[in-house]
Amino acid sequence: MSIRLSITELSKVYPTGEGVKRFSLDIKNGELVTLLGPSGCGKSTVLRSVGGFIDPNEGSIQIDGTEVNHLPPEKRPSAMVFQSYNLWPHMTVFDNLAFSMKLKKVKKSQIIEKVNWALTLVQLQGYEKKYPTELSGGQQQRIALARALLLEPKVLLLDEPFSALDAKLRHELREELREIQAKQQLTMLFVTHDQEEALSISDRIVVMNKGNIEQVDSPQNIYNYPASMFVAQFIGKMNFLQGYANSEKISIHSLAYPNLTQYNGNVTVAVRPEDIVIVNDAEMGLDATIEKVMMLGHYAEVSLYTDYGKLKMFVERNEMSQFKVFDTIRIAFSTIQAFPEENTTHINELPKVQNPIKEENERYEKV
Ligand code: ADP
Ligand code: MG
Predict the structure, then answer these.
(1) Domains and CATH numbers, the chain
(2) What is the pLDDT of residues 277-336, one digit of tens each?
(3) What pTM value is reported for the model?
(4) DSSP string, 121-155
(5) Which of 61, 314, 324, 341 is buried most, with the most CB atoms less than 10 Å from its CB?
(6) Which atom of ligand 1 is nearest to the CA of 42?
C-alpha cells in the first residue's frame, strides 16, 4: 500500500522548551493511526502541524509525495475535526455543510446530493433544517465529521473528537467512525489520551511521551509487548515486581522464565493481571493472600498480598466464588515482560572477555 502521509523529523519547540522533537511517521493510504499519550505530550502539536495550524521549526510534511509545509490549512488536502465542534451557530445544518461547496461554486443540485450523502454516512438524514443549538453534543460532532468528509480530504485529522461526550456516546461514535473509515477507506490521524479508545479503533498506535515517540505498533503488540516502562505503565493495568536477569533466565524469587531480552542484572518485571494464574505445585509459585475481591462486570479483580508486593489479578466471573478473602493461594505468571533498571547492563555490553574460557565458565556458574 502506498504512503499517504509522511512526517519527517518534525520539530516544534515552544519558548518553554516543551513541544515535539524529531517526530517521524508514515501513514499508509486507508490506514487509521492514533497518537496516544498523556495530556501535554505533543499530540495536538503534531496534528496541527500536519493541518497547517502550526508552523513547525523543522521537518517536512508530505501528502501523496508532495510537500505541504508552505500551504495554509485551507489549501492542504487535509481536514480537521476538533474537540469543540466549531459549527456556525447562526447557520442550519445544511448551510454548515454546504458552506465550502458554495464557495467553490458547486451546482445546487450537486450540493444537495452531497449533503444528503454526508448526512446518511453520519446517520443524521433529515436534519438539514436544524440549527446546531437544537442538536446534542454527539449530533453536533457528527455534523462536524460530515463537514470534514465533504471536503474529501486525503488525510482526515481528528483531535480528541469525542472527549467532550459521555462514555456511552463516546463508545458509539468511535465505532461509527471506524465503520465510516473502513467503508470509505479514509486515511486518518486520530488523537486521543484515552488508551481504550486508541486500542479499540486503530490500525496502529503511536505512543508518545514528552514530545517523543515511545512505540509505534498494532494495538495487539502495544498491549502484549510494550517497548518501554512508560508504555507498560500507560497501557492497560500492569503489575510490577523486582526480578533478576542473567543470560539464560529471568528470576522472580522461585519463578524463572527464559530471558528473551538482552538485559543482565536487576530488572523490573511487568505482569498483566490476566496473566496471573493459580498453580497447585508446592515446588513452584509464590504465596499470595487474598485481600479483596471486586466484581467489575464480566470479570473480577482480586487484590493479592505477597512478600514481594501487592498484585492485582483478573479472574472470570464464574470463577469468582473460589476466591475468599484471607485465603492463601499459590500463583505464577503465564507470561512476563522485563524492563531495565538504572544499573541493568546489556548482555552485549558485558565487559570485554580477557580469558574467554575462564569467563565463560564463571558466567555459567552464576546461572
Ligand atoms: P497534547 O495535545 O498531547 O496535550 P500539546 O501538543 O497541546 O499536547 O502540547 C505539548 C506541550 O507544548 C505542552 O506542554 C503544552 O503546554 C505546550 N504548548 C502547546 N502549545 C503551546 C503554545 N502555543 N505555547 C507554549 N507552549 C505550548
Ligand atoms: Mg491536545
Answers:
(1) 3-224 (3.40.50.300), 238-366 (2.40.50.100)
(2) 999 877 789 999 999 999 998 999 999 999 999 999 999 988 989 999 999 999 999 999
(3) 0.90
(4) HTT-TT-TT--GGGS-HHHHHHHHHHHHHHT--SE
(5) 61
(6) 6
